[in-house]
Design brief:
With 551 residues, the protein is α/β, with parallel strands linked by helices. The chain has two domains: 286 residues, FAD/NAD(P)-binding domain (3-Layer(bba) Sandwich), CATH 3.50.50.60; 193 residues, no CATH class. It has 17 helices and 20 strands. The strands form five sheets. Strands 1, 2, 3, 4, 5, 6, 17 and 18 form an eight-stranded mixed β-sheet that branches. Strands 7-16-8-9-12 form a five-stranded parallel β-sheet, covered by helices on one side. The structure holds NADP nicotinamide-adenine-dinucleotide phosphate.
Length: 551
């Protein structure tokens, strides 16, 4: 640590810094950013409040936590050697394996010595006079850097609703992303899970066989797709490893960053009912998101096409869940498929056929009144528990950035700026916050995350190179460019069924957080188009940005 007063100007006369770049977060984004910047010889310090690297994969340790993207493309693509060396054990690896993989990358790329764990960045204040960021940690350390990168993840700021009496519960009660690191003995216990999103869908089947009972409190039913989990075989691994350049290229050119064969060049109305059912059944059997991306080109834009797929999924629930009343309660209604992020299923529906598993519909049947010392009191009864898990989601995209005091050139915080309307330039930077970059920031695409992250990291690295090559002191994005992007992001979402997500409290629109949405938090104009735009921006030497030369 250096006191800012002790710092000397460098040989170019630029004010001195501790690091060229400070990165907040040591998950996929932070590790990727660190690697790319180190390759360019930049000095970088990565800070993370967790006691391990891994981001989402170090926080989300609940039983059953695993990827929803398939392992072989849920990884960094920058090194063919690492792709060949690492072996995945299954199609959707569990959090432990993801964490092992990220350690493998960090070790092989010698990243760890530049990462400081257990350190929370409390503030980052832009010093306009010197064109530098002053960063302070919770431990009282202060650092100066020229560039600040947020690599905090889009779904990292946890959200706990203000349930009356929440603090009174006598047993363990925690958000799902804070599952205790030390062994939590849930075997033979009565467990309540509030929330029925992607997290609960993974957690329930994993713990149900071991607990005395488990009860899910569901507000909105989800469309849930079968995962089709399977072990990696030597043959499959060989096929993947001999095709990596093609797989990576497919990710780069796919609307959701996944190596799928789409567009498929057919619309739903072209098929008869029987043909449609056969197509959906085939994709249902294959598992994963192909159901949405390899069925029909208009599935995510046309309500009739979407309704046909939704009906297919509702019929599957009836087939899988024995009790008709439970099946109906689990059937999503009133919003289209993918207006809310569909979780992948590892036996969720069948789990409701167990005698020790219960569903409480808190919208139509039993609204929650309060949490008591012993459980969850609804309008009908007290459900008694030993453990309560709050699988209640996240203040996505803006939450983590607004939680830190990040002050831009005019002294305004990012939270204050966005309070009058969210606007970013491609989710990468925001006007008035010079030399600040965001990875998976608001209005960036929601797609296979490692692909989006790596393409964003490449753009940021190129932008910093451009600035250093030209001896620029600062970069700001013009209001015009920012407004154009934000309008374009809204136009893009308006062309999809995602715009109806408000009816289902989706985090895509911020509608899961009281008072937050709806606003356009995600770019749904195609990750492939976004990557092309990033490349064009680099080719045009970042002409949409305003640079100021060193004094
Ligand atoms: P989520 O999908 O937002 O689900 C939160 C749940 O809590 C919802 O069922 C929600 O109900 C409920 N809830 C929120 N406020 C409530 C309240 N006041 N009273 C009662 N219930 C309330 O959160 P998540 O399951 O943690 O998943 C969030 C995202 O993280 C996912 O969409 C996904 O992108 C990511 N994720 C990914 C993976 C993976 O890839 N393997 C795994 C887990 C999560 P409503 O639906 O009515 O709002």
């Amino acid at each position: 640590m250096t006191s800012t007063d002790d710092k000397k100007a460098d040989t170019n006369g630029a004010p001195a810094t501790d690091y060229d770049v400070v990165v907040i977060g040591a998950g996929f984004s932070g590790l990727g950013m660190l690697h790319y910047l180190k390759q360019e010889g930049r000095s970088v310090r990565v800070f993370d409040k967790a006691d391990d690297i891994g981001g989402t994969w170090t926080w989300n340790r609940y039983p059953g936590a695993r990827t929803d993207s398939e392992s072989y493309y849920y990884c960094f693509s920058f090194s063919e050697e690492l792709l060949q060396e690492w072996s995945w054990s299954e199609r959707y690896p569990a959090w432990e394996e993801m964490l092992e993989y990220l350690h493998f990358v960090a070790d092989r790329c010698d990243l760890k010595k530049d990462i400081q764990l257990k350190t929370t960045i409390e503030s980052a204040i832009y010093d306009s006079e010197n064109s530098l960021w002053d960063v302070k940690t919770n431990t009282g350390e202060a650092y100066r850097c020229k560039y600040l990168v947020s690599a905090m993840g889009l779904i990292s700021e946890l959200y706990i609703p203000e349930f009356k009496g929440l603090d009174t519960f006598k047993g363990p009660c925690f958000h799902s992303s804070r599952w205790p690191k030390e062994e939590l003995d849930y075997k033979g216990k009565r467990v309540g899970i509030i929330g029925a999103g992607a997290t609960a869908v993974q957690l329930l089947p994993e713990i149900a066989p071991d607990v005395e009972s488990v009860t899910i409190f569901q507000r909105t039913a989800n469309f849930i797709l079968p995962a089709g989990q399977k072990k990696m075989t030597p043959e499959w691994e060989k096929e993947i490893k001999s095709n990596y350049p093609e797989i990576i290229n497919k990710c780069r050119t796919h609307v959701f960053g996944m190596p799928f064969d789409s567009p498929v060049d057919r619309v739903s109305a072209d098929s008869t009912d029987e043909e449609r059912t056969a197509i959906y059944q085939k994709l249902w059997d294959e598992g994963g998101f192909r159901f949405c991306f390899e069925s029909y080109d208009d599935l995510l834009s046309d309500l009739d096409a979407n309704e046909a797929a939704s009906d297919f999924l509702r019929n599957k629930i009836k087939e899988l869940v024995d009790d008709p009343e439970t099946a109906e309660a689990l059937s999503p209604r009133g919003y289209p498929l993918f207006a809310k992020r569909p979780p992948l299923d590892h036996g969720y529906y069948e789990t409701f056929n167990r005698d020790n598993v219960h569903l409480v519909d808190i919208t139509n049947a039993e609204p929650i009144v309060e949490i008591t010392e012993t459980g969850v009191l609804t309008e009908k009864q007290l459900h008694e528990f030993d453990i309560i898990v709050l699988a209640t989601g996240f203040d996505a995209l803006t939450g983590a950035l607004e939680h830190i005091e990040i002050r831009g050139a005019n002294g305004e915080t990012i939270k204050e700026k966005w309070s009058s309307g969210l606007a970013t330039y491609m989710g990468l930077c925001t006007t008035g916050f010079p030399n600040l970059f965001m990875i998976t920031g608001p209005q960036a695409p929601f797609a296979n995350l490692p692909t989006t992250i790596e393409e964003s990291v490449k753009w940021i690295t190129a932008c910093i190179n451009h600035m250093e090559d030209n001896q620029y002191a600062s970069m700001n994005v013009s209001e015009k460019a920012e407004n154009q992007w934000s309008e374009h992001a809204t136009e893009a979402i308006d062309m999809t069924v995602m715009k109806y997500g408000h009816a289902a409290n989706t985090w895509f629109l911020g509608s899961n957080i009281p008072g937050k949405g709806p606003s356009t938090l995600v770019y749904f104009g195609g990750a492939n188009n976004y990557f092309d735009m990033l490349q064009e921006s680099q080719d045009k030497k970042f002409s949409e940005l305003e640079f100021i030369e060193l004094a």
